[in-house]
Amino acid sequence: LSLLGFPSCATQIIYGAVNQSVTLYTSGSVLIKEIMWKKGKDKVIQWDEEDSHVKAYPPFIDRVHLDLISGNLTIFNLTLSDEDWYEVDSLSITNTKFFLRVIEPLPSPTLNCSATPEKDIVVSCMVPESYSRYRKLVNYSWNCFSAQCQNRSNSSEVIIGREADLSQEIQCIISDPLSRQTSSLRLATCVQ
Q: What is its subcellular localisation (predicted)?
């Protein structure tokens, strides 16, 4: 398998959230004498032992930290434009590539319900349309009160049997690799 042309054994997909920080960890465990991190073809930060000066490049000035012992790179205050391939270049560290995916915080899901002609209740869990980036990373799960809750794995809908206790609440949980959000609904609001 490959991801955008790089062999999968040499790449890692790392997730970071907008306005948060993320650390890209190297596989280095030897003394580093020089190191450079690149985003695509552009320099992010570099250091060498001879001039002992760490130099960050725009737009990363004041937003990155280089650990001079491990070679790890931390990026602060992530923006969507930080998403890209990152590569460490050092004689001390095996050539490692990362793909940084920057995702927006998950919004709270919206629950809607309706009754079927058979009097079952269908509850839908919806992510707002404004959340369009990486929708495919969103997973759905449900907290239901009884065995009458029938849902498929990772489905945005659940069917509640007509004999259900309408005083109960149902919860929809959406999650991505970094966060989760929950919304709940009292079943009595679904019937007239």
A: Membrane
CA distance 92 to 48: 12
What is the DSSP track for 146-181? STTEE--TT-SEEEE-TTS-TT-EEEEEEE-SS-EE
Task: Order the strands of the 73-75 sheet from edge to edge.
Answer: 22-24, 73-75, 64-66
Beta bridge partners of 169: 186
Average pLDDT, the chain: 84
Eight-state DSSP code of residue 25: P
Cβ atoms within 10 Å of 35's Cβ, excluding its own: 25
Whether 5 shows a pLDDT value over 50: the answer reads no
Element containing residue 72 per DSSP (H, E): none
Do 48 and 74 belong together in one domain?
yes
Distance CA 124, CA 43 (A): 46
Q: Is residue 1 part of a domain?
A: no
